## 1
Amino acid sequence: RAKHDGKGMFHFFEPSLDVQARQRREMELDLRTAIREGGFELYFQPLYSLKEDRLKAFEALIRWPHPEKGMISPADFIPLAEDTGLIVQIGEWVIREACHQAASWPGDLSVAVNVSPKQFLSPNIAGVVMSALASSGLPATRLELEITESIFISNVEKTLGALHSLRALGVRIALDDFGTGYSSLSYLRSFPFDKLKIDQSFVRDLTQDASAHAVIRAITTLADALGMETLAEGVEDEAQAEILRKEGCRQIQGYWLSRPIDARATQQYIERMRGEAGVLRRTA
Ligand code: C2E
Ligand code: MG
Ligand code: MG
Ligand code: MG
């Protein structure tokens, strides 16, 4: 459909759609370049055990410092990477780099890596993980993979197959953003998750809303009964952390502990947490 734009020009598409399509194509080309030239970076955010009162792990979060556009957040390029299939290559880099970084951390600190559905269901996922563990020297028990509930809308058989072969390696699997997606409780019975990561939307209302307490309590009770760990995402203040501790949530993650930080700052964070006693306790 031709459209007059008022400047004596005719466009054959809605200008906005045209612009969007062009931006997507441009971004796809930029993503390909970034894959080729190593243009991504990993940031890390601490996962803290309330139960043991110590640092347990870091979640690896991808960042894309774009040469012209500045830092692009994953929310702005992971969906396109997923649509184009580029996520498989990007995600492989993330797994390798995360394992490599974690292997340099002291003690038994783990790393958690986000894996998108297309990547999780790609035929060689277990091979990629095995090879990343072997070349980094990281023990499988120190790697945790995070998948979201959206995985359930695709092939259930394939998902189960991948879950079992990864767990056979000794890798742990967490269900990310729990409570926001499609999950039916029956999935929790048939899929072997090690951890439920309670979505930050449930944490946000904790200090105002009694029903938010009830939801957290129900999730932790259920997870305990199924032998799964719980972690609350998006913990921004001490009051939320205290409620979560009281409601039996095992681990927390959020700006209260730290924003995501680069690899160097992560090393410094670990050193600071170790303090003089050499224990990974929160000192502040
Ligand atoms: P996610 O896995 O649920 O990661 C948590 C997100 O919440 C991160 O956003 C983190 O910066 C943010 N966050 C952490 N604590 C707080 C808090 O206290 N308050 C608030 N408001 N936000 C907090 P980020 O880094 O922008 O990542 C967004 C999403 O992008 C991630 O959500 C994950 O789904 C995806 N993602 C990130 N890295 C990767 C990756 O390497 N591969 C894949 N497939 N997806 C990734
Ligand atoms: Mg995650
Ligand atoms: Mg999450
Ligand atoms: Mg989230």
Note: The CA atoms of residues 156 and 191 lie 10 Å apart.
## 2
Amino acid sequence: EKISAGLKKTRDSLMGRLEDLAAGFTKVDEDFFDELEETLIMGDVGANVTMRIMDELRDRVRHAGITEPTEVIGQLREIITGLMGEESPLDLSTKPSVVLVIGVNGVGKTTTIGKMAAYLRGEGKQVLLAAADTFRAAAAEQLAVWADRAGAELIRHEEGSDPASVVFDAIHAGKSRGADVIICDTAGRLHNKKNLMDELSKIARVISRELPDAAVEVLLVLDATTGQNAISQARSFQEAAGITGIVLTKLDGTAKGGAVIGIREELGVPVKFIGVGEGIDDLRPFVPAEFAAALFE
Ligand code: GDP
């Protein structure tokens, strides 16, 4: 399976080490707990979340009187699975519904939109893409290629035009053409944060004015290869935009996938999709139990 193959590096770096650790200890003592903690931190799980996991693990071990290191790893698996919560699918309950996709350049935003369009097309939905990253001409070009591949429609304006007006047009086109989902690309330049955030709130205002009752998802795309830095990046976006979910890209080829474990806990929003490759089929709904199984297999 693609998810399992994609997670190989993370599995080796995190679970591989935990198993080696369990094999190297004969009893469950403070040294063992210290090494476990260290391994989670090295596996990009994040300091806060690691603390939470370790507290709960110690509690469980104490209460159940566990003395076998391998049994402790079993408990750890349960705790990690629980932390990631339930699957959280996109809310597409209105026609049209809107998915606003945000994130800094290079994280895989455009690719994710293309893959998501294909995924939704596969579910029989009419998809319309709005090229509201008008800052880079190449962005609209790239989106046009993906729209073609995915069988989605595209609304684009000239380079440098007002992103909110692209979204406005996309909403009206979407309504008249009977689109089920309108997915909006946005600019991701971070060097001018105030500008970017103003632009996002202007787009959000257009959406709520033109489609006051629509289901709206605001998805932040994060690059898994940046590990814990992705979490800090998410915090600065969260201050400005009401994020409803995370898409974590490039989980294939990184050993830092442990960052997924703490996202819901740290950011208070679920991971909705993961990217496990560059191809059109390489976006998967995030199913925590499936992810945990691939991680611990
Ligand atoms: P944007 O600037 O955020 O729109 O980023 P792009 O969509 O242009 O993607 C940047 C690069 O990341 C491209 O080379 C993509 O093929 C690659 N990419 C995107 N998602 C994934 C993924 O899940 N896995 C891998 N391996 N590469 C990805």
Note: The longest strand covers residues 216-223.
## 3
Amino acid sequence: MYELHGTIAVITLNNPPVNSLSAALRQHIAAAVRQAELDPAVTGLVLIGHTKAFSAGADVTEFGTPLQLAEPMLGQLLAHIEACPKPVVAALSGVALGGGLELALACHGRVALETARLGLPEINLGLIPGAGGTQRLPRLAGLSTALAMIQSGAPQTGKQLAESGLLDQVVAEDLLPAALQRAAELARLGAPFPQARERSLDPVLVQKFVSEQQDKLTPRQRLQSAYTAQLEALSAAASDWPEGLRRERELFLQLQSSSQSQALRYQFFAEREAGKLPVVWQAEPRAVHTVAIIGAGTMGAGIAICALNAGLRVILLEQDDAALQRGQQRVTEHYQSRVQAGKMKATVAAAAEARLVPSTDWTQLVQADLVIEAVFEDLAVKQEVFKKIDAHARPGAVLATNTSYLDVDAIAHMTQRPADVLGLHFFSPANVMKLLEVVRGTHTAADVLATGMALGKTLKKLPVLTGNAFGFIGNRIYNAYRKQCEFMLEDGAWPEEVDSALQAFGLAMGPFAVADLSGLDIAWRMRKAQAASRDPRERYVAILDQLCEQGRLGRKTGAGYYSYSAGRQVKTTDAVVRDIITQASTQRGITRHTLTATDIQRRALLAMVNDAALLLAEGVASRASDIDVVLAQGYGFPRWEGGPVFWARQQDRAALEQDLHTMAAQSGHGFKVADLSVLLD
Ligand code: 3HC
Ligand code: NAI
């Protein structure tokens, strides 16, 4: 949209929902700028967006299509604006991200609302800024601010950036008048107008900074080419202007065609897709203002914190005063530490805590629109609790269980209203982890599911729908993967070999380090509970049980698979563990042999792929991409590898199927081989 405000031309970007810089928008902006240039009555220009977005950057859906190459390319448009003989001011509201921020950086002035969120999130897509961001930002805001923004990808508010050198002015409201004023002011001052490119950086300082930062990259960052490319691009900012831009573009294009960026872009869209329920389930969610949480342990307290943060009223119910006090203490300590760290205002924390109603009185439940049970993982205990919930909750309240593995139907049947029951499986720490599995029981009503999904969004989670099967999506796949890793111990690998191979692939932690962290007794208890129903012909690895029998329950007891001196994990497993493992191999009649890192990675990934295919065939997962979202968000699977399904789709199919059969033979009786066509066709 183009309109005149006195002598200033205001160009309003209008490409819903987020003003991504599609070919059409780029063409319209270029035409509007040209119109303003040619109109002798115009003395300056303002580029403005809408409340939600100035612009969220390049249109990611165009990547790899001819549209992306349609002229003007983003870089050309920015050069055009920068060279405009009349001053151009960007007025920033909502988000200015990626190419959107780069557009603003090419303008001669920038005015932002305090609440505007400015950032260069390209790293989340496996990219670097590709339209001058790595060149203009360090010139305007300095190397440290620039790298912090480019490396973290996290947006900062106008208010936070007020003194950064990035913005001419930050206003609480009245953005357009402030931008008009700035444009008029620049016009009055006359050419040359401020341009980031006119500033230069000291090459010696740049090189020193870049080499220091190279040393600071974490192992996971080193696995992702975009992190090194960011530093290379920043290093090129010390060159002359055209050379810096050329190098940035070159690196951007290399990354854009890389499998890592493709995987991350796939994850970006898969995450958004996961929140969209298939049409049949698109019922109106029930209103939720008050949530009751039963059980104030690790999970209950974490769930309470995220509900309080979302502005909901929370009734926290425990079985006795002592447990209640402990739970309440967890919540209080969380807010205290946020305030102390300067991450939350004391008034905001106090308001959140004021919405908490701790209680041991079940009649309080009548006030709740939604109840989340987070008591011990024991079917009988949960069933008793649900009988009580049924007796006290108001008609129409949604009733959820946070069970990790138990049958949601067996819990729902304890109530007179199974249609109101579903699973809401949060991940630990519940106030941090974004993933939320929304579990559909046999009788769960459509609007109850819709309420679960909507609550997930209110809590700023990433809700993924799953069917009611053992372990749902995530724990089911994780179990299959962990089992295969245990087989590899018996076959010849040591725990540290398995862990380091999988970390080298990009997993946040290996399975045995994870097991030690969460405590081996959880799995031990579950194994004992399942012992009676286990098929004796199945390959069963008893290493974990033997560790537990020796009191090695993981980090908390100072030893598990690894031993821990002063809390730090020793790198290699000790003689006790190796003895247990060697004996397990002997008992199974296995001659231990070396497994390479590639063998280990492939077998662990195949285990995930196999169960992903089974889950999809069984209808537990509605889409293959949901499985990838769950693994990346909840289990530390490297997002830049896309997830197990994405990974499988990059492999040679015949080799994959052949290896799967080999793995089935290694896994013994009861191993179900999936038909991979459900994932790969
Ligand atoms: N390109 C194409 N589509 C985009 C997009 C983009 N850059 N950003 C968002 N969308 C789409 C989403 O896919 C979604 O579509 P849908 O409704 O069909 O599912 C819709 O816009 C709304 O997005 P969200 O559901 O994510 O809405 P939110 O309000 O939760 O978040 C947002 C808005 C903060 C802008 C978030 O969408 C976001 O972070 N977007 C990505 C921003 C980004 O990464 N920009 C950099 C792009 S790369 C680049 O600019 C290269 C340059 O350096 C050359
Ligand atoms: P926890 O042991 O820390 O807390 C359970 C709480 O429930 C205790 O405070 C206990 O006093 C309370 N409780 C027990 N019976 C009760 C009753 N009848 N009425 C009221 N309160 C009662 O357990 P945690 O780890 O918080 O787990 C809770 C649930 O969340 C389990 O089902 C678990 O499987 C699930 N879960 C746990 C995760 C984890 O990492 N800890 C992750 C995801 C789900």
Note: The domain at 279-470 is CATH 3.40.50.720 (Rossmann fold).
## 4
Amino acid sequence: AKRRGKNTLSLFHSVMQENLMNRLKMESRMTDTLEKGLFQVFFQPQVDSITGDLKGFEALVRWFDTELGYISPDRFIPLAEESKIIIALGDWILDTVCRILASWRSELGFTGTVSVNISPVQLKCRDFTEKLKRTLDKYGIDPGAIEIEITEGILIDNFDQVIEILNVIKKMGMRISLDDFGTGYSSLSYLQFIPLDTLKIDKSFIANITRDGRIEYEITNAIVTLVNKLGLNTIAEGVETKEQMDVIRAINCRTVQGFYTGKPAPAIECERLIRSGG
Ligand code: C2E
Ligand code: CA
Ligand code: CA
Ligand code: CA
């Protein structure tokens, strides 16, 4: 199907980067890996910048292939989207996240949130919201414990339809987060239309927030100030150093996620963190 828009173009580019052989090979390996249940979900902590308390995690899919080795989601997610494998893979990720979250809640008394990345291909599926509800019910998950992460690219086609789906998700009690803010054609006007709880500032801003980064600093500071005034949560992504952490705290950005506070890790390693209260 031919669609228009920047998202389709960048998808086209990343898909073209893999040659045909690689694509076919990777697609068949992906299907095989999914059927055998060999994908994994890692979790990266999201931490209160002031108290250091653990607030939640972002779920990130991992693929360690027996033949191809480690393959980054930046490489295989575009292929999974193009081939529609993302729909079954996304279902598996959501089910796995809910199963793990249910056990953290019952066995460890975990009360934080888990954010799940949702591809536009998944979100625009007719039965997406019903599937969400079924999976939450299956594991008895409080909808407020799940945060759906989308990027602004999701709004490029079918703007009204997407806003309607997001409103349904919001009414179900789930949280909604706008990822990678500051890349692409980020516009503050989205804040009027998307029923947002959280805005995630892209790591390209955080990378330049200290050294020689007057512009990145000023933009981040202004965005955080505005988003705080609107009563939404802001997460600084990709915080790697103490210097970045200090700036983030000073400008009142309440949540951090990055290698400085914790790398993505398997569920079992996160359990230790939950037990120790972050
Ligand atoms: P994202 O949603 O922006 O995820 C954040 C990425 O930043 C992750 O890369 C994470 O490992 C990385 N990261 C975290 N802290 C730091 C840091 O301090 N420094 C640096 N340099 N990087 C950091 P990852 O896991 O390779 O994922 C890449 C992208 O693939 C994600 O970007 C997301 O767009 C996509 N993705 C990952 N998991 C899923 C998934 O389960 N479903 C879907 N649809 N997409 C996913
Ligand atoms: Ca994300
Ligand atoms: Ca991001
Ligand atoms: Ca990203």
Note: The CA atoms of residues 163 and 193 lie 7 Å apart.
